[in-house]
Write a structure and sequence with these properties.
Layout: H1 2-123
């Protein structure tokens, strides 16, 4: 009976020890689940931050592309305006030369007219 009692006490101690170990494992499991929930939340925050950063960069690249297109368009416009200015400059030079030639013609006609008048006066 005493051996049976000892065996029963030992089984009771082992049962208590198993209950304690089970309780500790349960606490550890809860701790791990809490840590996992925290890590999961951190991952979600990271994913959201990553998506936001990716979207910001995509928007920046699109804006940069638009700015490049605007720049190229402005270069074309500037080239066209330069050509127009050069054409106007050439036209101005031609008109200036024509005006100068016209003034010379008027001066020569005036001189010829004066010489004719002087010659007519001298003839009288």
């Amino acid at each position: 009976i005493s051996a049976l009692k000892e065996c029963l006490e030992m089984a009771h101690k082992q049962l208590e020890q198993c209950k304690q170990e089970k309780e500790e494992e349960k606490k550890n499991l809860e701790k791990l689940q809490t840590e996992m929930a925290v890590k999961s939340a951190q991952v979600k925050v990271f994913e959201e931050d990553f998506k936001a950063e990716r979207n910001r960069r995509i928007e920046a690249y699109v804006k940069l592309d638009d700015m490049k297109k605007e720049y190229e368009e402005m270069k074309k416009d500037l080239s066209t305006k330069r050509a127009e200015v050069e054409n106007v400059g050439q036209l101005l030079i031609v008109k200036q030369q024509q005006f100068h030639d016209h003034l010379e013609t008027i001066d020569k006609q005036h001189k010829d007219y004066q010489e004719k008048m002087e010659s007519d006066l001298a003839a009288k």
